[in-house]
């Protein structure tokens, strides 16, 4: 498969656009990092209405902006992911720049070793191979966590999406069944999370090299011995939702690391809703990922 050597984006500014410097549009509205703006400027690869325009000049409603990125603009322009079967790929959204899939429970997000296959990213690589495109991982979900997973389809949108996540402009809502009853209808958990020195697989509150972690939750439903919560993360620490609720004495049902449940009970944590501002655009999408069968089975057992 021949690798693409450049990626071009053409956008017409909307009628309600407020005139501003081209540099401000690229950095403040489209979240391009400074080094990419410099590369576009130096190579005269940013055009306004078909002509190069210095980035300190203003652009106006109705102007057509064309950006052309080269492989040399990026440290890693091509991901090294081996295509695997595309049979399990469930697409929630796709355009020319990004893909959102409903990750299956039990599938790792991405390979950790050279030559590794069988992960979600390997499956997506097979799905995209027919389109001469490749997947770029943006965020990850734990292996046993299902749901909406965001994947880029070219290197130009990777730094944009990463920055949108960092600045909390991509909103992710999770659903989780936790053990016990939460009396407060909503709340905020603010506890630092670090490594668990006794078990390298685990994290813990106030563990080794802790970093502040903030989790927002809202109660959705009660069962006699369990509570369904909708969760949004203000920070993105490893195992954050799992550690925070376990520390409160309400571990997620089926958590193999933090709950004392039978092995056959799967983790009931799902990336449910995703709101994403679209790169090089002024629009956004909101997507909902259907719940896995494990959620339905859990509820049906309690309502028999």
From TrEMBL:
Listed A to Z, the keywords are: Isomerase
Q: What is this protein called?
A: Pseudouridine synthase
Matches recorded under InterPro entries: PsdUridine_synth_cat_dom_sf, PsdUridine_synth_RluA-like_CS, PsdUridine_synth_RluC/D, PsdUridine_synth_RsuA/RluA, RluA_PseudoU_synthase
Record's PROSITE patterns?
PSI_RLU
Could you say which enzyme class this protein belongs to? isomerase
Q: Which reaction does it catalyse?
A: a uridine in RNA = a pseudouridine in RNA
Name the source organism: Secundilactobacillus pentosiphilus
**Mind telling me which Pfam families this protein's record contains?**
PseudoU_synth_2
Q: Where is the Pseudouridine synthase RsuA/RluA-like domain?
A: 97-246
Per the record, the similarity remark reads: Belongs to the pseudouridine synthase RluA family.
PANTHER family the record matches: MITOCHONDRIAL RNA PSEUDOURIDINE SYNTHASE (PTHR21600), RNA PSEUDOURIDYLATE SYNTHASE DOMAIN-CONTAINING PROTEIN 1 (PTHR21600:SF87)
Locate the active site. Answer: 142
Q: Which Gene3D superfamilies match?
A: Pseudouridine synthase
- What does the function comment of this entry state? Responsible for synthesis of pseudouridine from uracil.
The keyword Transit peptide is annotated on this UniProt entry: no
EC number(s) on record? Answer: 5.4.99.-
């Amino acid at each position: 498969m021949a690798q693409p050597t450049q990626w071009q984006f053409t956008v017409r500014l909307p009628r309600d656009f407020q005139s501003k410097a081209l540099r401000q549009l690229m950095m403040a509205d489209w979240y391009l990092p400074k080094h990419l703006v410099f590369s576009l400027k130096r190579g005269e690869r940013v055009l306004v209405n078909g002509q190069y325009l210095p980035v300190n000049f203003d652009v106006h409603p109705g102007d057509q902006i064309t950006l052309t990125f080269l492989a040399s603009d990026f440290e890693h322009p091509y991901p090294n992911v081996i295509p695997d079967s595309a049979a399990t790929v469930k697409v929630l959204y796709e355009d020319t720049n990004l893909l959102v899939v409903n990750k299956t429970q039990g599938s790792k997000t991405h390979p950790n070793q050279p030559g590794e296959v069988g992960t979600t990213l390997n499956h997506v690589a097979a799905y995209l191979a027919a389109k001469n495109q490749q997947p770029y991982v943006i965020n990850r979900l734990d292996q046993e966590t299902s749901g909406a997973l965001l994947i880029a389809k070219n290197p130009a949108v990777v730094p944009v999406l990463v920055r949108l996540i960092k600045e909390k402009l991509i909103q992710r809502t999770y659903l989780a069944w936790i053990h016990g009853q939460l009396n407060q209808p909503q709340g905020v958990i603010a506890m630092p999370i670090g490594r668990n020195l006794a078990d390298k697989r685990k994290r813990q509150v106030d563990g080794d090299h802790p970093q502040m972690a903030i989790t927002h939750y809202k109660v959705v439903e009660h069962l006699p011995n369990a509570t369904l919560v909708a969760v949004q993360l203000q920070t993105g620490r490893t195992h954050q939702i799992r550690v925070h609720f376990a520390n409160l004495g309400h571990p997620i049902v089926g958590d193999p690391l933090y709950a004392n449940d039978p092995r056959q009970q799967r983790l009931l944590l799902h990336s449910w809703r995703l709101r994403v501002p679209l790169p090089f655009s002024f629009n956004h999408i909101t997507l909902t990922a259907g719940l896995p069968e494990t959620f339905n089975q859990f509820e049906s057992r309690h309502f028999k």
